[in-house]
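ok here's ABC transporter ATP-binding protein, seq below lol
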Amino acid sequence: MTRAISLRDVTKIYPRDVVAVNRLSLDIAPGEFLVLLGPSGCGKTTVLRMIAGLEDITSGELLLDGELANGIPPGQRGLAMVFQHYALYPNMTGEQNMSFPLKIESPGRDTTAQVRETARLLGIEELLDRFPAQLSGGERQRVAMGRAIVRRPSAFLLDEPLSNLDAKLRTRLRAEIATLTRHLGVTTVYVTHDQAEAMSLGDRVAVLRDGVIQQVSAAREVYQRPENVFVAAFVGTPRINLLRATVHAPLDGRLNIDFGTQRIQLPQPLSPDHQMLRVQMGREITVGLRSEAARIAGPQEMRPTEALLNGVVQHVEFQGHESLVHVSTGARPARVEGLESPRPPTRGGSRAARRARGANPLRQLVGRVLG
Ligand code: ATP
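and the structure came out like this:
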């Protein structure tokens, strides 16, 4: 059994008028994996704790499978929560820790089979006899996961469960969590401030800022079509280039985008994405340019959908499978970052000429006007 979780216009105000969550509405479908993503203090944990029943809702409604659940005690919601800190009982073995929720439910019951089956699912059978002090961080978090799923909850609430682990283990465990929750088909709400983790895990990602939802979309959509500058800047590594520009329409009717000392012309006809630029005429806009949308090229190498920004390569960061190229341009801010494959740009012109140019695929460059 898996649950639909809905929040309707939910607000949480802590003492001293701290508004942690502000009129938040969200529908999470049964079996869905939703990631709540945002910077520290934006209200992610508060949302999770309200769903769990560990925090009162100041106003608004929480619905579980369509039923009002604001007043249901935490233990009766059928949800399991895993915290950042493993919160295992230090004086109990892995097995005792995992069987604890079952024993609370029905004291005296033989829990061995259920605990063993869950341990098998997580690949932690060999950890059952050990105490938490004898486990590594990753192993403790696996046991904590085991304790959460042993009761076969109807939803998981995971609060930064991997943040105490090293980078390699995080990557491995997050893949395990994704596989496990999908295998169990259980609704999962996963809180993180790590955008890479959010992108790799969620069916959908809800981006929060100051207790307000900024965007709820598929991870790919959040990355490629951010709703605003905050989302664009928060998601993606390297950080998106945000360039100030103005839109102009000279006499020939083709739109120009003016980056201070440089100007690019949009191809005709305008794509649906670019149509909205017409209403921005004469206004200052922010153009978001992802690094991978820029490449180093010269005028003779341009494709029809591209535009050229001239610049000087300032610095190249070698990153193994690609290099991050810092280019100074006349745009504001002056520095643009682009990614390149390892092969240096060898076609055409002297080395000095190659250094002096930077080109951007126009479709990407003006794909989204952010504000
Ligand atoms: P983090 O990623 O750092 O855990 P978060 O996004 O989970 O942050 P919350 O812990 O939900 O954020 O906190 C949201 C806001 O509410 C913050 O401004 C925080 O200081 C405040 N807050 C949280 N708990 C309480 C509390 N018990 N009393 C008063 N204010 C609180």
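fwiw Residues 14-15, 18, 20, 38, 40-46, 193 surround adenosine-5'-triphosphate (CB under 6 Å). kinda neat tbh
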